[in-house]
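Quick one, tokens below:
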């Protein structure tokens, strides 16, 4: 009697995107080589993000109003689960992450040693602007002070989740604070969290899309509120 071969885990990429026309299509096309399906969450864009992502081969989910990266990530994780994903990888739409590093990020989930994986720029931050290094270190410290959880590069959006992890994480924040919230929820749920080094990619465009000082303060305030609640 011949035993059937076990099915290969389904790997789905989730890309939150807001006004990323001119960039999201390239990310989708590059990601398709490493995953079974690419889902883009168009978070209320007013440009051609939706059409570009769809033309590049992604399945697109649209928010008719901008809900923030937290809301877009929550929508993407739910959609990936409904699509039958066994492993989900999230990455930014602006080209800051290298899709060819997807296998490295998902490896700990696939080999069963982690439930959540953070792609960490600070493990090898050559080429990362000093201001960004300092800002991320401060964010890491704030996450530790507020929630007692310390990891490097808590703000990285390049992540992998097992199906169990994605089902367990109930996102309640809407903005950039979601990055810290997910880590805290994962640790408190007893999920295994690992980190792998990724290559930081910065262009004038991606730097212009990053956290400003004002947004950083607003994110901290929301994390403090999340701590109370």
């Amino acid at each position: 009697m011949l035993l059937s071969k076990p099915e290969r885990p389904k790997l789905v990429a989730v890309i939150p995107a807001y006004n990323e026309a001119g960039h999201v299509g390239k990310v989708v096309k590059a990601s398709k080589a490493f995953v079974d399906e690419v889902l883009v969450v168009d978070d209320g864009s007013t440009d051609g993000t939706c059409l570009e992502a769809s033309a590049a081969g992604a399945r697109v989910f649209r928010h008719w109003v901008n809900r923030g990266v937290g809301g877009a990530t929550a929508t993407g994780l739910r959609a990936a689960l409904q699509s039958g994903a066994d492993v989900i990888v999230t990455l930014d739409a602006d080209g800051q992450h290298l899709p060819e590093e997807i296998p490295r990020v998902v490896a700990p989930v696939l080999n069963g040693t982690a439930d959540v994986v953070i792609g960490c720029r600070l493990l090898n931050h050559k080429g990362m602007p000093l201001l960004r290094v300092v800002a991320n270190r401060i964010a890491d410290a704030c996450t530790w002070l507020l929630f007692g959880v310390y990891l490097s590069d808590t703000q990285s959006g390049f992540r992998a989740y097992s199906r169990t992890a994605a089902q367990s994480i109930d996102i309640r924040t809407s903005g950039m604070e979601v990055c810290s919230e997910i880590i805290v929820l994962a640790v408190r749920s007893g999920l295994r969290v690992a980190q792998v080094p990724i290559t930081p990619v910065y262009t004038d465009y991606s730097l212009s899309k990053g956290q400003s000082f004002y947004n950083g303060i607003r994110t901290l305030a929301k994390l403090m509120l999340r701590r109370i609640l």
